[in-house]
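HUMAN:
Sorry, I am quite new to this. Are you able to go through these amino acid letters and fold codes? The numbers rather puzzle me.
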Amino acid sequence: MSAVPRSDQEKRKQISVRGIAGVENIAEVKKTFNRHLHYTLVKDRNVATQRDYYFALAHTVKDHLVGRWIRTQQYYYEKDPKRIYYLSLEYYMGRTLCNTMINLNIQSACDEALYQLGLDIEDLEDMEEDAGLGNGGLGRLAACFLDSMATLGLAAYGYGLRYEYGIFAQRIKNGEQSEEPDDWLRFGNPWEKARPEYTLPVNFYGRVEQTDKGCKWVDTQIVFAIPYDNPIPGFRNNVVNTMRLWSAKSPNSFNLKFFNDGDYIQAVLDRNYAENISRVLYPNDNFFEGKELRLKQEYFMVAATLQDIIRRFKSSKFGSRDPVRTSFDTFPDKVAIQLNDTHPALAIPELMRILVDVEGVIWDKAWDITVRTCAYTNHTVLPEALERWPVSMLENILPRHLQIMYEINARFLDKVSKKWPGDVDRLRRMSLVEEYGEKRINMAHLAIVGSHAVNGVAAIHSEIIKKDIFRDFYEMNPEKFQNKTNGITPRRWLLLCNPSLADAIAEKIGDKWVTHLEELAQLKKFANDPSFIRTIHKIKQENKLKLAAYLTNETGVNINPASMFDIQVKRIHEYKRQLLNCLHIITLYNRIKKNPNAPFVPRTVMIGGKAAPGYHTAKQIIKLICAVGNVVNNDPVVGDKLKVVFLENYRVTLAEKIIPGADLSEQISTAGTEASGTGNMKFMVYFSYLLANTF
């Protein structure tokens, strides 16, 4: 069997930071790979496709995870630590294969094994679909947190929805955005493990019945939640945590109306209404869309997750024989629920419903448990992004929860009125129920009142929260408000996507920076080292050459790799000001046209991002950028002094290609509107530590 040619020798450098490929490891990978190709995929080398090879490799890598995964969960059961439950409606995971190989320290072994089998690992990595279960920063932050918590060895679980269709695939046709469904599961997902034995019922609609023992939610419609577990490996610490995603499934009982009418086919087809709950991710970023399906998604995730949390709490090694567990006295000592924005805020009334209606806990004690358990992360100060659900919709879909929210509000406003007697305006501002216009529940107010901690995601953002949008709440409970500046994982955003730079850094300062990014500050002492500066320049130019070749192949635009790569990549939104960037391109173009012989620094402007399908202005901005690019790129007077590229279908995997080649990062959002921005941090890994400290 002949080996594939190796054109990129730098990629094959095998030093400690990338993992060492031992002979035994390589032989074992080859053996396992062939076994999976034969027994799992039922193929041989005569008929196997590239996708078959990818799946064989994925299963091979997953084999290295399984033992660690089981042992990690066993360890948590034995030690019974306080568990973190991160609730998020979005997880922008990207690809799993390469990240897993790096975290398990087997990338070099897999690379060498496939080389010996005549396969190129990069070709197989490109067969993996992005898990695009998020819109932007909020979902990508959730993915980074899961990676970080596993690397820190925390007993943490991510809970969300298993969307059949993730964020749409963006296509540029005739200079305009069009959307295609992201059918990311069509070939299957080798990383997930379905757990139908843990299927849970979730209730909707119905009515509230008053009994001698309290309130009872009856005559509900049931949808089942089937969990799918995904392994989250820590970085070389043998820890594998779990991300559990819920999929909606209709019960087997048919709609009796159709059944009695003899319409068996319609009865079966009607099941889709329930299963649509986990069908598709809403593609809006920083914009609230008050659709009934969205509300169902939020409650479905919350209801299934809380049942799972309580089951695990009760059935833990110590809880199963500890009567205190059944009284929930120790619940906040063993359970931490983090709400990633207000999308999971229904966890607060749902936990109250379970404690009061199901477990028989008195209200005051249940409320104390709920507040001590829940914490809330705010992600935006934009008014159009804050969730406000119509009371009429809640009354129809979640009647008991609306009652509970009214009770929470009444008790809360009673405290407000005692602290500020006669301040009716303050009562109106702080109420969970907005009375003007259509009556609505303000979910941010619910999240603040029902949590013991509220954080913004950057210092400036947290100050705006305290001094502006939630000022009243801060004045009432200043001890609740905190700042937790967002971050990124250096495993994916340096070690994985910029291996040459990772190697160069490791040669100078070791590899501790992979888990302690502040270690990169040690590079300051090499600021005047000519050899290191040349190495950094060489790596940057190689990254630019690689990116230029990729983009020329994808777009047909001839890109000058010696030009300044000026990049703005994020969701298309008015406050992010891609329009301002476009006006700057026009200005540069006009300057060149006015004086073509003037000394210009050649520049390639790249703008990438998706516009929400219903966001007309954002789509018009994309159309303008493409139109301007068409003029600039085809003007012989301009030549390669200026090029414009719109980066189609920007996503995690494309970001991994683009960011290592950047010269200029455009961060020009209107002041005070970008909560933290994590894309800028990925650029700053290269600019702040490497460029600023080496010149």
